[in-house]
């Protein structure tokens, strides 16, 4: 997420950017048929994502707990 965010910020600043992954990301579908991850973002990180145009693209919900 850090590399993709930095690449997006550089692209928004006018730089020509190519993002290369070493390996294809492993997808492990959850019960809903999509990859599910829990990510915690600080307010500053959410503001940065919103500035880059992706902050509102994902539905944020309050974290209430975890069972392992």
Can you characterise this structure?
The longest helix has 11 residues. The chain is mainly α and 68 residues long. Helix content is 29%, strand content 0%. It contains 2 helices and no strands. It has a domain of 37 residues.
Features:
2 helices, 29% helix, flat, mainly alpha, 68 residues
Rg: 15 Å
What's the number of extended β-strand segments? 0
Distance between the termini: 24 Å
Which of globular, elongated, flat, extended, rod-shaped describes the shape?
Answer: flat
Quote the average pLDDT.
Answer: 77
Structural class: mainly alpha
Q: Which stretches are poorly predicted, pLDDT < 50 over at least 5 residues?
A: none
Give the proportion of residues in helices.
25-40%
What does the main sheet amount to?
none
Order of helices and strands: HH
Beta-strand level of the residues, as a percent range?
A: under 5%
Continuous helix count:
2
């Amino acid at each position: 997420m850090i590399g993709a965010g930095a690449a997006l910020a550089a692209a928004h600043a006018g730089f020509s950017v190519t993002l290369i992954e070493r390996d294809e990301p492993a997808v492990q579908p959850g019960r809903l048929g999509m990859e599910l991850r829990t990510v915690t973002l600080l307010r500053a990180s959410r503001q940065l994502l919103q500035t880059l145009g992706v902050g509102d693209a994902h539905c944020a919900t309050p974290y209430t707990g975890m069972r392992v």
